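Much of our argument rests on the idea that a fold can be written as discrete symbols. In the encoding step, the backbone of a single protein was reduced to a row of integers, each denoting a local shape. We regard such an encoding as a compact summary of how the chain folds. The record that follows shows the chain in one-letter code together with its fold in token form:
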Amino acid sequence: MDLNTLWFWIIGILFIGFFILEGFDYGVGILLPFYGKDDDERRIIINTIGPFWDGNEVWIISAGAMIFGAFPHWYATLFSGFYIAFVLLLLALIVRGVAFEFRSKDARRGWRNFWDWMIFVGSFIPALLWGVAFGNLMRGVPINAQMEYAGDFLTLLNPYALLVGVFAVAVMTLHGALFLLLRTNGDLAARVRGAVNRLWIVAFALYVLTLIASALATDMLARPTMPIVAAILGGVALFAAYRLHQRARDGWAFTMTALTIAATFVTYALTHYPRVMISTLKPEWSLTIYNAAAAPYTLTVMSVVALIFIPLVIAYQAWTYYVFRERVTRKTLEY
């Protein structure tokens, strides 16, 4: 394995960590206005992710920085071509962060209800846009010989990418619901438990539909690494999540949805490798881990830095999850 391949998979692992961790964040935020029946229950829902949500976003910041360092041409083409989509995503995340901070500044019901819906919007839009972005990357986008994006914002809003976006929302919402079962109890947990079956049906149907669409719209079946195997394993994990949930083994069910998210991204990575952005204009204009990469010396220095700091990031996040492992109840609410 050369350094280019190593960094392709390091960045892939960071994306997997982000979507597993931030995925349940988004899912909890999407469920907030619908399953919190009073102010205390909504506060409980927010407190389940309160210690984690901002730390979870470190993974995507790290991934973006590493793309910039390891594959600067990929970074330039991606962020210039997807500029409007990323600005919308950033604005949604800003609204979400502000909502977490502002919600409790005023006790009026209307005030808190408004910010609860802003948490929903700030969770739903990023989940959708991340799916749309990776749907476009999976399908390919118009890239010319100068490694420049040759489309516009509407180019990104094609049916396949929108389908992947809706699928992402469904899976993250299910992932978030299972996380709530691990962090709450009582009537709130009972309502969420009743919703998981419906969420699973939607997520599984969209998984199958997205898999079929991917086989038709991309070259995943022609890839020598057979990403279809990873995709099938993701579907098996999603089905196992349902069976485990039926047996009230919520921790394992949550693990299975996490594996589904990981398998989905592995499917994407295996379909792409060694490409990082596929050109729909000419295959030879696609960006790869070689023509988009930084100098070998840069990759070597980055490898040393990553070896030191990535374990530190994992360690402090693991410590955070351990410290805040208890369930959130009405008795533990602190304003």
Summary: The longest helix spans residues 3-35. The two ends are 52 Å apart (CA to CA). The longest strand covers residues 275-277. The chain has a mean pLDDT of 94.
